Amino acid sequence: MENVNKKILLVEDDLNFGAVLKDYLMLNDFDVVLAKNGMEGFEKFKKDNYDLCILDVMMPYKDGYTLAKEIREKNSEVPIIFLTAKTMKEDVMKGYKAGADDYLNKPFDSEVLLMKIKAIIQRKSSEVKTDQVQFEFRSEERRVGKECQLRCR
Predict the structure, then answer these.
(1) Cis peptide before 79 (omega within 30 of 0)
(2) Which of 33, 25, 72 is nearest to 50 (CA)?
(3) Residue 73: how many CA atoms within 13 Å on its side-chain side?
(4) Inter-residue contact 96 to 103 (CB < 8 Å)
(5) How far apart are CA 24 and CA 27, in angstroms?
(6) What is the pTM of this model?
(7) 28-34 long-range contacts, Cβ below 8 Å, gap at least 24?
(8) Contacts 24+ apart (CB under 8 A), 137-146
(9) DSSP 113-136
């Protein structure tokens, strides 16, 4: 139940595959919103907050690379995973340049995807918590050198 309330935007034009993946992620306690193309995906992204986006690359109306760039312009922090059949090195590089945190080729192992999602969301949650901690530094002179003490507030 650790994934409850973690919201994922899944943008996939293959509706059968999208429905199966959505169900799998929901069985693993994620809240998943499915969009069937890049244009619909961006509209849904603008209307809600997501913990992670999973994007296909080849979609009608707006491809995944363009969608990722638009998402990055609106929110530079939300993690993005590309899940696509485009496997050439140039495609992978283009995905990372568009703002991807990860890039998985279809077919893929669903358990590996699940572990990647959990790791990325956990890392993002840890970064937010770290950013909210304030530190107080106090320096004391010692004979041999300087000592720095660190306390959290």
Answers:
(1) no
(2) 33
(3) 8
(4) yes
(5) 5
(6) 0.81
(7) 28/3, 28/114, 29/1, 29/2, 29/3, 29/4, 30/3, 30/6, 30/117, 31/4, 31/5, 31/6, 31/7, 32/7, 32/8, 33/7, 33/8, 33/9, 34/10
(8) none
(9) HHHHHHHHHHHHHHHHHHHH--EE
121 Cα distance to chain centroid: 7
pLDDT tens per residue, range 41-65: 999 999 999 999 999 999 999 999 9
Each residue's pLDDT tens digit, 104-127 = 999 999 999 999 999 999 988 776
Lowest mean pLDDT among 20-24, 103-107, 147-151: 147-151
Task: Tell the burial category of 11 from Cβ atoms under 10 Å away from its Cβ (0-12, 13-18, 19+).
Answer: buried
DSSP H helical segments within the chain, as ranges? 15-27, 38-47, 64-74, 89-97, 110-132
Question: Token pair of 78, please?
Answer: 């939300």
Is the model's pLDDT at 6 over the cut of 90?
A: yes
